[in-house]
Amino acid sequence: MHDNIIPMLGVVTDIRTDTPDIKTFRVEGVNGGKCFEHMPGQCAMLSVPGVGEAMFSITSSPTVKDYQEFSIKKCGCVTEWLHHMDVGQQITIRGPYGRPFPVDDALLGKDLLFIAGGVGLAPLHSVINYVLDNRSKYGKVDIVYGSRSKEDLLDLPEIQSVWADPASDMKVHLTIDREQEGWDGHVGFVPNFVKELDFHPDRTVLVCGPPIMIKFVLEALTSLGFEKTQVYTTMELRMKCGVGKCGRCNIGDKYVCKDGPVFRFDELDELPAEY
Amino acid sequence: MMKKLPLEQLPAFLKGISETKTLVAPVEKGGQVNFDLWTEDSTLRLDVLKTVKSAKGAFFPQVEDIVHFQMQGKNIDIHPAEVLTEDFVLFGVRACDARSFELLDRVFLSDPTDPFYAARRAHGTVVTLACNRPEETCFCTNFGIDGADPAGDLSAWMTEDTLYFQANTEKGAALVAGLADCDDGEITETQNSIREILNKLPLSNLNLTGFEGDHLKERFDDPRWEELSRGCLGCGTCTFVCPTCQCYDVKDFDSGNGIRRFRCWDSCMFSDFTLMAHGTNRPTQKERFRQRFMHKLVYFPSNNDGIYSCVGCGRCLEKCPQSNHIVNVIKTLGVKEDA
Prior knowledge:
- The complex is a heterodimer of chains A (275) and B (339).
- Chain A is an alpha/beta fold.
- In chain A, strand 1 and strand 2 form a beta hairpin.
- Chain B has 339 residues and is an alpha+beta fold.
- Chain B folds into two domains: 167 residues, no CATH class; 125 residues, no CATH class.
- An eight-stranded mixed sheet of chain B has the order 3-2-6-7-8-9-1-10. Chain B has a four-stranded antiparallel sheet with strand order 5-4-12-11, with no helix packed on it.
- Chain B is globular.
- Chains A and B meet through strand 6 and strand 13 of A and strand 4, strand 5, helix 6, strand 11 and strand 12 of B.
């Protein structure tokens, strides 16, 4: 009866350093296995008692059977603490929260375009691997991903060995903001790269990144002929309860924790521009 | 059938309740009247119309523990806080605060139900009291609330020498089962006199038509928020005296003997309410002020069958140090522009 606001125990069984400020944490229940089932795009509240609790998107795909992973950028109290802990540390976890990407509904059979910037790849990572594990249910897949530098590209080993592998039948387009020694790939910001790649506007798009990137990506897509009804994103606001009661993530008549975090752009148009 | 109790027997009646149940009533402490534990030594103030804080704390306390943690090395023990298991009586609630419980129910009892709030609601019996002397700051009538006919499990009317009770639920009836029966007509005069005052109150007929219908973005983008919010100190007093404000914070406190995770009232008027590592989506007091009133007058109704999240208790009118209150907002934005 308590379970919507009372957390359960989780154990951090693996910590991977992805970039200078992003680590990926593997979390299992105390007796092994996943703490709960989720769908791509859903979030969970992680906490370190005494430090605080914060909402994170679940990075791993639901098709991973034994654990959940969270790619977390160091930027505040809780994340700072998480970045300093060791494997074997217990944390608390509750969830899953929110409306997922419509992977078994509106995305089925569609040609997909994923656009991510920086740690914004984290929530899309779950969808991409879900699509990969159910590859025949979806059409063409392109992934555009950019970061400040090559060191800041999240999950680069997995991107290169799995997503970019011809067997995956997905195309990966990487870019970094500025020229860098040892990088012979594309250089430039994500929105311009999207325009250059000139995607056909029949794609269904999933975009996540810094707000400024999302804004210009949307402009780029519009110039290519995309409609807002084809574009999904996931939002991040301060949250405390995760169940639409504490009031923090209220935007218009929506609560991002339960009505989102995934929204289609035409749905966002209905809301006050306060996010 | 109504029941009645001579006023001089009220202390004995309350003592009888308090022998088996926790009794919470408007009592005076340190010069302020608030809903608090009643004992024989309490100074009961049924004559005071508006407690400083509303009665919501009986169901949604200002601070309450939700979980305790014990940390041992890398391990954590989780001990959820207990939900209330004992019955209590909340006595002397006015019609406006009684309505606020229905609004809070829509938040805390909607899926997923809040276990702490739900337990308090299940174990609480609400005894309301009609408002003999509604004040100039009262504007409950705008929200369909009748100070002469308050809701609750048991409604009460007070005359110079008698308390009359009307049970609305079995819980309410059980409290007054031992009292003498009386005729419904005995409170008619009291009710008429209350309604006569209510009709004459300066804020009894506010125009809310501007908030009706689907004009969420228009209302949000209204340029007059700038002027309305000017002077707002962001002190949050309105929120803390408000019977319907229900936003909360969750915090951890290391007691030295384990960690208490508690929740406490919070205010969207505070600058850090939505502050994240990368900044805030409501950078100035204008956005925070707008959020509070848009939520009460537009967002909440949009999700709750058109019901406003204000009960017109008027506490914020009395307590706002700048007189930047909801009635100003209603008077400015409530009038349909094209009407």
